[in-house]
Design a protein that fits this description.
Structural class: alpha/beta
CATH class of the largest domain: Alpha Beta
InterPro entries: CFA/CMAS (IPR050723), CMAS (IPR003333), SAM-dependent_MTases_sf (IPR029063)
Pfam family, one: CMAS
EC number: 2.1.1.-
Family: Belongs to the CFA/CMAS family.
Number of strands: 11
Order of helices and strands: HEEEHEHHHHHHEHEHEEHHEHHEHHHE
Helix content: 40-55%
Shape: elongated
Protein name: Class I SAM-dependent methyltransferase
């Protein structure tokens, strides 16, 4: 049996893909998207890694060439593969033929792209999952690529979390600033308050809250590159007396009595089993009537935790990352003494955010390749486009959960009917400069 014949048995001769194999055989529709297996290693990747991981490995190594693919934004290809390549149900005879085909090609340990992280078993050398040293290594793998690379992909806001688009025509920068205002409004930030931002990234929330809401803020990140960039930005903004970003573990924060805590995109990294201790720690850092805003990617159900160990995201993007449903997060928060006051899903907004990041990557493709290497740039193209598709199809979601450390007397600190939405696209509640002060607002987030 040829490779092309095996393809037709698995996906059908009318599949919207034209497979051209190194042995000269073909499969799928003659008018379909052309995928070329340039050598036997391409087949071996699929036999050993499955469809998702195998496709990524073969593509990144050049063993699979896809005609006309946009390396910076392969969304159309991923959507076509997702929609148009369902596996056929084989007869007993066909299944036996496929088994003989696999045995003939003798699957062997594949050659791996250098961008792929070790398996879960090999990561044990760095400690148990979510031990401090292993967490630091996982964060460094993803975030300590190059600050310049992130500037090109994320844009001037340097914000690597879901934006919130106030209107259909809002730009990415407007949406990121609006997201920070939304978080600030939900937290009820006022001049003189103390804010803790855990997993603060490049300090966007810290800087925004200090400049526009008059608070004093501390941010914490495990990425040395992020902390260095954020401290320089804080100094340039002239707010070093009220803002700081620390390089370290959030568990090293000793201060207490904060008025508000924001956790924007950190929960995905801490491990589902660590949720109780995580939310307990954050509650202990708040004063009575203080508020917590937890913003993180979630699953669309509460029946599954974690990420597939053999999946693309786990091996190339977020080593040791774990997701669960928003209901599980709410339950743990409540079990640890928080009173949940508001819960919102921004799934469609994250799809738009990923599309905007893909567009930035495409615009700066040559520079991004020079900065991070072709393999890493390709990983980012796949990752962002695949994430966009996942958010669009409700395969993953993004939830903000707002809660308070309600006092023993039952005082939550919330008014009877609180406003949680900025009334004018990022100006309500600000104490400093607004969009109307003559600046373009791009450095605000």
């Amino acid at each position: 049996m040829t490779v092309g014949q095996a393809f037709d048995l698995v996906f059908g001769p009318d599949a919207p893909v034209r497979l051209v194999a190194w042995d000269g055989s073909t499969g799928g529709s003659p008018d379909g998207l052309v995928m070329r297996m340039t050598n036997p290693d391409a087949l071996n990747h699929f036999l050993t890694g499955g469809s998702e991981l195998g496709l990524a490995r073969a593509y990144l190594l050049g063993d699979l060439v896809i005609d006309g693919i946009d390396e910076a934004d392969p969304y159309d290809v991923l959507r076509l593969v997702s929609d148009g390549l369902p596996m056929r149900r084989q007869s007993v005879r066909e299944a036996a033929e496929l088994a003989q085909f696999v045995a003939h090609h003798r699957p062997r340990t594949p050659r791996l792209p250098r961008e792929e992280t070790p398996s879960q078993l090999h990561r044990m050398a760095r400690g148990l999952r979510h031990a401090r040293g292993r967490d630091a290594a996982a964060i460094s793998h993803h975030y300590d690529v190059s600050n310049t690379f992130y500037e090109r992909v994320l844009g001037p806001s340097m914000t690597y979390t879901c934006a919130c688009f106030p209107t259909e025509g809002a730009s990415l920068e407007e949406a990121q600033a609006y997201k920070y205002d939304l978080v600030a409004q939900k937290l009820g930030l006022q001049p003189g308050m103390r804010l803790l931002d855990v997993g603060c990234g490049w300090g966007g929330m810290v800087r925004h809250a200090v400049k526009h809401y008059g608070v004093t803020a501390i941010g914490v990140t495990l990425s040395r590159e992020q902390a260095s960039w954020a401290q320089a930005a804080i100094a340039a903004d002239g707010i070093a007396d009220r803002a700081q970003v620390r390089h370290g573990d959030y568990r090293d924060v000793t201060e207490r009595g904060f008025d508000a805590i924001s956790s924007i995109g950190l929960t995905e990294h801490i491990g589902v089993r660590n949720y109780p201790s995580y939310f307990r720690f954050l509650r202990e850092r708040l004063r009575d009537e203080g508020r917590l805003l937890n913003h993180c990617i979630t699953r669309p159900d509460n029946r599954h935790d974690g990420l597939p160990s053999r999946g693309f995201i786990n091996r190339y993007v977020f080593p040791d990352g774990e997701l669960t449903g928003s209901g599980h997060i709410v339950r743990v928060m409540e079990d640890e003494g928080f009173e949940v006051r508001h819960h919102e899903n921004l799934r469609e907004h994250y799809a738009r955010t990923c599309a905007a990041w893909n567009a930035n990557l495409s615009k700066h493709w040559d520079e991004c390749v020079e900065l991070a290497g072709l393999g890493t740039a390709r990983v980012w193209g796949l990752y962002l486009a695949g994430s966009r598709l996942g958010f669009e199809r409700n395969g993953i979601q993004l939830h903000q959960v707002l809660a308070s450390r309600t006092s023993t007397e039952g005082r939550s600190g919330f008014p009877l009917r609180p406003r949680v939405e900025p009334s004018e696209a990022g100006q309500t509640g600000r104490t400093g400069q607004t969009r109307g002060d003559g600046r373009d607002g791009q450095a605000d987030a």
